[in-house]
Amino acid sequence: MARPFLVCLPGSSNPKHPGLRMKRSKTPPAACEEQVRQRVRQHAALFREGDDPVAFWESLCLELADCETAECPPPETRQARMQTLFMSLRTPVLLLNADFEVEVMNPAAVALVEGDRMDAWAEGTHVPVPLAELAPWLAAPLEDHRQESSEAEACRMGVAVSQKHGERHYNVSVSRTSDFSDRHDGFAVVLDDITERVEGERQLAEERNRVAHYLDVVGSMVFALDAAGRVTMVNRTACRVLGYEERALLDRDWVDALVPDEQRDEVRDCLYMIFSGQLEDEDERFHYVTTREGEHRLVQWQGKLLTNEGGLPVGLLLSGTDVTERRAIEEALAEKELWLRNTFVALGEAVLILTPDMKILDANPAAETMFGMTNEELDGLPVGDLHVNPAHYDDFLARARSAFEAGERAVFELPLKRRSGVIFPADHSVSIIDGDDGTTLGVVNVIRDISDRKHAEAELRRSEEKFRRIFESIEEGYMVTDLEGTIMMVNPATCRILQYEAGELVGRSIDSLYRIAEERGGFRKTLEAEGTIRSRQMNALRKDGTTIVIEANAHLVRNHRGEPVAMEGTFRDITRRIEAEKVLREREKQYRAFFENNHAIMLLTDPKTEGIIDANPAASDFYGYPVEVMRTMSMSQINGLSRDEMFEEMRRSMDEGRTYFVVKHLLAGGEVRDVEVYSGPIMVQGVQRLYSVIHDVTQRIRLEQDMKRLATTDALTGANNRHQFFSQAAHEVARAKRYDNPLSVIMLDIDYFKSINDTYGHHAGDVVLKVFSETARTALRVNDVFGRLGGEEFAALLPQTGLEEGLEVAERLRAAFAALSVRVDEAVISFTVSLGVTQVRASDRDMEEVLNRADEALYRAKRMGRNRVVKG
């Protein structure tokens, strides 16, 4: 009976061997030997690494089938060929019987097995040997599989073998074999050596683990994107920062998932340009990403383009660092630096930044004004040059060094000198600037001109002395007590009125000085309730027990928190006044006559309501109101100053130690007059009033203003005189250079002005100059500076104006002058003007250099025919 075999034909679907179709047959196909060889070659060409060698080997069994043609080789030949093929296979193959005994194995398998029975194989006996004796490492997993699978179906498994050259790994394929009656009679075992593949996979896994560990512990966010921009890998840092799970980001479009809507187009364009090679992939870029909670975070991204072996881009590796807080800190620092710079520039006190060797590195505008020098002049100047003499500078250094060694800021007074040589008192605050490493970077010297303060201190000392004299010499008693009524201080008038020594009163209770207990209680309650008492009449006891009538004023003294801490007040003995009131009333008519007949302007007002109680005829004549009308008016109706201006004048009066106020009063016809007001309190029928004597000083103040104007203004034309023009010009040039602003200068000269004087007379020339000046000032802006430099030569300074704009202004002026006609008596005079225009340059050292350039342009205009504008 012929043994069954597999016939493998090309062109069918076989799950293990595509391109082969398999059928079982008991009758061999009719084919000659050449056909068999051709079929074997076809099968061999289809064999690939990883295919099942057993299946491939069995497919060749068509050579063992009985051949229906006479041309088929004899069985011995076919068996020999099959034996050669089996023995030459490099893949180990073992044939087992149903008892798991090895019946047949090729040399490749012999090299793997071990045991005493190998000698029999070597002698060619080929007695079946249990697999457990030859290859226990293979028998155990096969036995486990047979127990787990009762049907003992074909299977694949992995087996590791420890050999003297190291561990080897095999992929074991096991399939059943059958006899010619199709009964299961054993197993075919094929071992495919996969050691290199396993080792490669192990190394790849280790490498992946190392990379994954690095990416997970690195502080940056890491994404791997494919060529379509989808996320193929994300590390833990990115998940933690963005609040996502890893699976929520994988395989998602990176831009759609994380980039805010308003930046998506920009980022997509950037990715496209990186993939297409139009941008460097390693350049750093900044853009926002959105967390899972919707928060926008600014990230600094750096990418690395991933390419295949052919250099084609296959993906992008992105590394991002969250710089949201850092950027916020940088912006805050920039804002703070800008604020500090603006503060430095705008500070009212002079500030000098000094190098460690005490040279000026920078100065604010207040310092420029204080010393009368520009920033450029101060830059690099030894600060010792600003001190009065070397001894003062040594004192400055010694005080600063002493404070620095103590770790403190140096604060002291030391005079300085201006560029003009004027010495002025100054307060110094000197601080050291240390770097992060403790090295000295420089010194800050803040300077305050205390000339006014020194003057005020002197005035205050004089004022204090005056008030001390007043305190000691006033007729009113002055007394300070604590809240319990214990006397703490009295003036000499108190001792004189009450006939006590000061030592007898200080420390004594004020209650012992009241004559009537009810008055004492009422006075205390009123003071505690209202905080102040005015003109309270009471009966007081002198030391000798006699009673006097006093008029007292008192108020609570409060600390900085507004809490009452003491009581103070003044009082006067009005005993005789009360007795003399009758006499005073009799004399009131006399005083009334004095008030009404005085030529000085006098007003009697209520200090509480500011209402005018009385006015003398001189006041009526001055203000233009009848006396009866003035008695119904308030001071606010004639006061021409606002409340703030009035308070400011009161403050100036106190600072200057004046006994009068300089204010503006409104007359009935609307005219405003400058007046000096001398005021003082008086008692009228027991009520305090304010008595004011007013002097009209309008003419004097106008004369003072005229004198100031004459000092800065050209008397004929009303333009700035030469000194004032150069003073303002120097300031404008310095400011233009400091802030890099354009500044144009125009020189103007009346053509043939001498002929106007010669023809029409100097009076006509003066009229022409006046009209010329008025026309120029009208055409120029308010902040433009216009001045007469001499004769018929004038100049104009145009801040914030470039050269081209300056030429346009000059042309408008030229046209305006050319259109003028000046009438002087019967003559009508026309004239033209030549103008030279230039712009201040960074190289200009001073205003004279700028004016010389404009003057040269002016004279070129003269030489070119006059009545024209020339650029210089």
TrEMBL record:
It comes from the Bacteria. Residues 741-872 form the GGDEF domain. Residues 207-278, 336-407, 463-509 form the PAS domain. CDD domains: GGDEF (cd01949), PAS (cd00130). Pfam families: GGDEF (PF00990), PAS (PF00989), PAS_4 (PF08448), PAS_8 (PF13188), PAS_9 (PF13426). Residues 282-335, 410-462, 534-586 form the PAC domain. InterPro entries: Biofilm_reg_signaling, GGDEF_dom, Nucleotide_cyclase, PAC, PAS, PAS-assoc_C, PAS-like_dom_sf, PAS_4. PROSITE patterns: GGDEF, PAC, PAS. This is Diguanylate cyclase. It comes from Pseudodesulfovibrio indicus.
